[in-house]
Amino acid sequence: EGGGNMAASDAGDSEGLGGLSLLGLAPGAPSCPHGPALLFVKTSQGKEEGRRFYACSACRDRKDCNFFQWEDEKVSETRLAAREEYNRNHQPSFTHRQNVERYKYFVLLPLPKRKFCQECQQLLLPAEWEKHSDHQCLCDISTAQLKSPSQLLFPLENKKTNAQYLFADRSCQFLLDLIIDLGFRQVLSVGTPRLHEMIQSKASQEEDFSIRSLLLDIDFRYSQFYTEDEFCHYNMFNHYFFGGEAARETCRKFLHQDNGERVIMVTDPPFGGLVRALASSFKALMAMWKETEEAHNNQEMPMFWIFPYFFEARILEFFPSFSMMDYQVDYDNHALYKHGKTGRRQSPVRIFTNLTPSMIVLPVEEGYRFCSICQRYVSSDNQHCEICNSCTSKDGRRWKHCVLCKKCVKPSWFHCNNCNCCALQNHTCEKSDAGCFVCGRPGHKRSTCPSLSRT
Ligand code: SAH
Ligand code: ZN
Ligand code: ZN
Ligand code: ZN
Ligand code: ZN
């Protein structure tokens, strides 16, 4: 996206940023320890209000990164120098290279000497034990444990946007089987450490398993377990490779294997909003893939973007070629979002893809069927609506058609003559309001949308 046209059309799409709008990645933006900062502006009723400013792309909580600069602010040489030093000092204590060397040494240690500090989230070498003697440590770290770092590491959950929600085994296996059945060989895993781990461990165990994965993630703890060809420290909100040109080149090479013909990108970003920033990074990764050969014609790099269904319109705005699959992605550490058949609430998380929907075969035994009119697999309760001429349910329940709204709506909704749209029976009528950006319902703003809360 060019800097110029960002602002005009997009002021107003405050993505749950509490009256803030993301303008995007601007050329010449200042940097914080997480790479180039993003440009934001305060908005009120869809209009820009006040000065534009830069803030950290990765952290939404000021406690995690308090970078702030007005767009038109003059920054003195001294402050610039101090900032550069600050950014240097706020990089991880070991480099990726050092972590790879440490790992090589670690695996040579006998089991009783293999310790992992839970407090520092770090593999320890014997000389370091003493420094961590007050810390909770795990001992006898097995090779199997080293091959499943997502089980060994605590999922990050303190921060709003950096919370890690790990795939349930069933969903991870489903994704991998799908990738195999579709004939892909290279998986660019962007923020999907568990999928990466499943691929890596199969590749090391099964001789005829020919799929490779490269993990791009901001969680640097993973650099303790993977080489520079398997993991790049990457920020998906500003397309920033912390490892510089070498890491970028690793990614480029990975995308260009076998002419890039069997590459798919899979990503499961944090939901905190910032779809615009994600989309622009994913487009940059797609462009990187496209540099391969003219042979791709006008094709796009195949992609699975895993995200909640209520972001459908938002994703399609940036990727019109995408469609949303009915498959409900399950997570291990999401108590509320287990699969519907277990009697719990259903997961709102879906797969968005630019592949032909009919190719995405969903498991019948988990309650999906093929709709021959829509030419895609849908939830078995998702009824084909004759009037809309599609299977309209987004949440897996059977939706009903409202003739006044001229569309299908959730089963729990009723047409409200006051609001002139369908809503929950006990909603508060708010005629003037445009409705929530995420779910479209009146009465609340995006930041307090009930469908967004994950706890
Ligand atoms: N379901 C996935 C994990 C998704 S959680 C799995 O099981 O593999 C979101 C992931 O995105 C986490 O791994 C987190 O570390 C990563 N992430 C969060 N913010 C990021 C950023 N700014 N850039 C890159 N990765 C990020
Ligand atoms: Zn420690
Ligand atoms: Zn249908
Ligand atoms: Zn309908
Ligand atoms: Zn209605």
Automatic annotation (TrEMBL):
Cellular location(s): Cytoplasm
Cellular component annotations (GO), alphabetically ordered: cytoplasm; nucleolus
Pfam families from the UniProt entry: N6-adenineMlase (PF10237), Zn_ribbon_GRF (PF06839)
Highest taxon in the source lineage: Eukaryota
Presence of keyword Nucleotide-binding: no
PROSITE patterns the record matches: DHHC, ZF_CCHC, ZF_GRF
Main localisation: cytoplasm
Keyword presence, Cytoplasm: yes
InterPro entries: Mlase_EEF1AKMT1/ZCCHC4, ZCCHC4, Znf_CCHC, Znf_GRF
Domain GRF-type residue range list: 32-74
Keywords assigned: Cytoplasm, Metal-binding, Methyltransferase, S-adenosyl-L-methionine, Transferase, Zinc, Zinc-finger
Domain CCHC-type: 436-451
GO MF terms held by the record: nucleic acid binding; rRNA (adenine-N6-)-methyltransferase activity; zinc ion binding
PANTHER family, per the entry: RRNA N6-ADENOSINE-METHYLTRANSFERASE ZCCHC4, ZINC FINGER CCHC DOMAIN-CONTAINING
Protein known as: ZCHC4 protein
Organism of this sequence: Bucorvus abyssinicus (Northern ground-hornbill)
Gene (name only): Zcchc4
